[in-house]
Amino acid sequence: MSIKVNKLEHIYSKGTPFEYKALQGIDLEIREGKVTAIIGETGSGKSTLVQHLNGLLIPTAGELEICGFKILPLLKNKDIKKLRKEVGLVFQFPEYQLFEETIERDIAFGPKNFGATEEEAKELVKKVLPLVGLDESYLERSPFELSGGQKRRIAIAGILVLDPKVLVLDEPAAGLDPKGASDMMDLFIRLNKEGKTIILVSHDMEHVMKYCDDVVVLDDGKVKHASDVKTFFEHPEWMVQIGINPPAIIRLKMMLQEKGWNIPADCLDEDTLLEVIRKQVKNHE
Q1: What is the pTM of this model?
Q2: CA-closest candidate to residue 170, choices 234, 69, 95
């Protein structure tokens, strides 16, 4: 079933001089089995929103329905433990999720917390490591001795080991080199094809355009736009309005339009753009 967000509000430090309303009446439906990008400028509410999806944050007002669970204001921690097995959240900064002395113990923590024996947890760890591009030589290493990109892989492995139905990723390619980022995105798409719903917060519009089905734009704690990815990229002005740099192909199309070329709105890939240019050049010969 889809993820439904109704009139969601979140206020930090409510009732204090530091009170801040991060989410302001969010209404949203995220399609099951799709890859959805949540984008927006820094401070728009992206991370606050996704932290509600597994109950890490509880609404100040409004509600969410996800994986058969309803998240409401005043919900207690004991009521959402099972939800966190179904909805895995990988933080923007992997250091926030790493705390054990070894990588093996860190990844094994989740399964053991949900009832796996020591041996069962170790077997699950060995199975999940190759998914994130690491091997068993990492098991006894400290997660705090790794590079930023390696820490991110370990944090992702610590979520994948629970086999969640929904995978929520806050800037999943940050800290990875181009090949590492591409490999990681390919992994998420493979998991999506196997049935997982993928939700990712990203500033990388190239990734959004290439990998995602739907796009949600947040601005000042509100949903500014929500559409399928094709419709979104047919309207580059939406990105310009919120200060987001469009993908290279969209920037090129906009530049050509400014120079007087007739480039259709639905021209969104290199081959189509080249064909449009070729025909217009031929017509002017």
Answers
A1: 0.90
A2: 95
